[in-house]
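Exercise 7b. Backbone tokens:
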């Protein structure tokens, strides 16, 4: 077999389909978020970032940076091993205690990323519980899908955010058999929010564990930034809450918060935890400071949501179609992968605005989009410049109008 030819053919198919991904070479400016420096074939230029998951700019917060510097001076750069072999620092212990307190759970367990926390926890739980069946929302993240695939458990997909469909599927299972209902609070691409209370009602009626992914909600919603479940007074109904330190908290890492026994079980049996080097102590120290800060910083959350409303109003005024939801995620729908990339290239090259095209397989074909994530640090002028640029692009590209996705992916505005 000509291996090189095979790889080239597969890559060419991606390019032909408009799905080939190109990394944006950017240099974030500490203390100046969302400003950055972008590098491309045309050279360097100043850009404004509109697609970061560092939703509150905590990755450049002075207190977070100071904590990381202090930990480097005290402990050095790396952890030195797995958590079981010399890799557990006091920063890890304190951070897990802080996260357990944030979510009003007995314990928390750290992982190297949110992807790993889902993959390791779900694969271990679903594989270990005898004859376990997992009910997974149709729109769940790739990390959830991969974890369940690795578990080789009986997985049944229920319609997105549909408690009635979930109930129908659970009714077909033996009442005494182990079951896990896995869903997210804020879905990252459409920005819609799960009916958590109704899903919990169904799960508990069938004696199923509830596993809630809150990676796009922690830090942003609820008392002390504990997430959507906490905002709705439902945290006590969630058996396992999964979150990340890489989005609103601005650093890196993932975690689960649950009962002490469940966390100890995952700690003791999950290969994705046992055989992975621990988070570097400076990273844990920075995350610890960020979590503590956001427990008290309601002002940043309030400002974020006000910026979201301002952006949506500006998009409406400019006639730009966007998906209506109750979260901080603002998807601008294009519906064509080539056009989506062209729009993003034009934004950065002509206007200094960086947005990443979101294409298949991240979203279904025909629903390609720009995923805008305003932060408290985006100014009125930033919003005006973005909507002006998009408005110019929309008027010069008739295809944008012809290729709007249908409203089956959600309610369109604009």
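Sequence design result:
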């Amino acid at each position: 077999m000509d291996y090189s030819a095979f790889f080239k053919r597969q890559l060419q198919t991606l390019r032909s389909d408009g799905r080939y991904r190109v990394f944006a070479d950017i240099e974030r400016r500490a203390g100046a978020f969302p400003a950055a420096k972008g590098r491309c074939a045309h050279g360097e230029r100043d850009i404004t970032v509109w697609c970061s998951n560092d939703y509150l700019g905590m990755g450049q917060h002075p207190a977070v940076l100071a904590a990381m510097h202090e930990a480097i001076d005290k402990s050095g750069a790396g952890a030195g091993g797995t958590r079981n072999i010399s890799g557990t620092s006091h920063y890890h212990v304190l951070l897990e205690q802080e996260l357990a307190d944030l979510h009003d759970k007995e314990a928390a367990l750290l992982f190297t990323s949110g992807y790993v926390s889902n993959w390791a926890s779900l694969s271990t739980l679903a594989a270990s519980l005898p004859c376990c069946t997992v009910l997974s929302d149709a729109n769940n993240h790739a990390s959830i899908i991969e974890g369940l695939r690795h578990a080789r458990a009986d997985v049944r997909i229920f319609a997105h955010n549909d408690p009635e469909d979930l109930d129908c599927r659970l009714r077909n299972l033996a009442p005494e058999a182990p079951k896990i209902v896995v869903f997210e609070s804020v879905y990252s691409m459409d920005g819609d929010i799960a009916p958590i209370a109704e899903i919990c009602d169904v799960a508990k009626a069938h004696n199923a564990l509830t596993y809630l992914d809150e990676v796009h909600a922690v830090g942003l919603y609820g008392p002390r930034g504990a997430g959507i479940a906490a905002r709705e007074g439902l945290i006590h109904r969630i058996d396992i809450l999964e979150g990340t330190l890489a989005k609103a908290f601005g650093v890196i890492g993932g975690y689960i918060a649950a009962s002490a026994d469940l966390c100890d079980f995952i700690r003791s049996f999950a290969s994705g935890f046992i055989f992975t080097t621990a988070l570097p102590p400076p990273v844990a120290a920075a995350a610890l400071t960020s979590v503590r800060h956001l427990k008290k910083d309601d002002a940043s959350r309030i400002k974020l949501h006000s910026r979201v409303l301002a952006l949506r109003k500006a998009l409406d005024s400019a006639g730009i179609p966007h998906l209506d939801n109750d979260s901080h995620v603002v998807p601008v729908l294009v519906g064509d992968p080539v056009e989506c990339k062209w729009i993003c290239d034009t934004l950065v090259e002509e206007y200094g605005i960086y947005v990443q095209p979101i294409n298949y397989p991240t979203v279904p074909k025909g629903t390609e989009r720009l995923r805008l994530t305003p932060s408290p640090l985006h100014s009125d002028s930033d919003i005006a410049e973005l909507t002006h640029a998009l408005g110019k692009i929309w008027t010069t590209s008739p295809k944008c109008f012809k290729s709007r996705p249908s409203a089956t992916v959600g309610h369109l505005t604009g």
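Instructor comment: The chain is about 45% helix and 15% strand. Residues 279 and 331 are 32 Å apart (CA to CA).
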